[in-house]
Amino acid sequence: MYPTIDVENTKNKLSTVLSEYYIQRVELGEVHPDLEDKIQLFISAKKLEGLSPFTLDNYLMELSMFADIVKRKAEDITTADVRMYLSQDGNIRMSTIRKKSSVLKSFFSWLASEEYIKRDPTTNIKAPKDEYRLPKSLSIEELELLRES
């Protein structure tokens, strides 16, 4: 019913093919080297586009924080991973989440356009709404001055 497999022959073929590659195990808890490489390529590309050193430093810092949390190959990162990263700290302002989201969207759209990844995991992530701030009301003294004028 099942086909017979020549185990020795298969091992030899596999050994021959794998001998052409350098394979290194990624330990749990480490940032995947693939993601680090992709971040460096992205920063280099943006440097050539003429972005300011300040912007490049911010991009690198934000992407490094993301890589420290996610710890996966770039092509294995999902929308859920990005959402988890953006929502992990409930005490940050919406403007900070918007900045983080913007950097990640830029990075992953660049990876997709350069064909390093097949699908951009940030396409379904929408920018958070602006925080609504109540207008500052006039004090009693200011109201009285306004009434008298």
UniProtKB/TrEMBL annotation:
Name the InterPro entries for this protein. CB, DNA_brk_join_enz, Integrase_recombinase_N, Integrase_SAM-like_N
Alphabetized, the UniProt keywords read: DNA-binding
A Pfam family recorded for this sequence: Phage_int_SAM_4
Query: What is the official name of this protein in its record?
Result: Tyrosine-type recombinase/integrase
Q: Does the keyword Nucleotidyltransferase apply?
A: no
The Core-binding (CB) domain covers 33-112
Report the source organism: Halobacillus seohaensis
**PROSITE patterns reported for this sequence:** CB
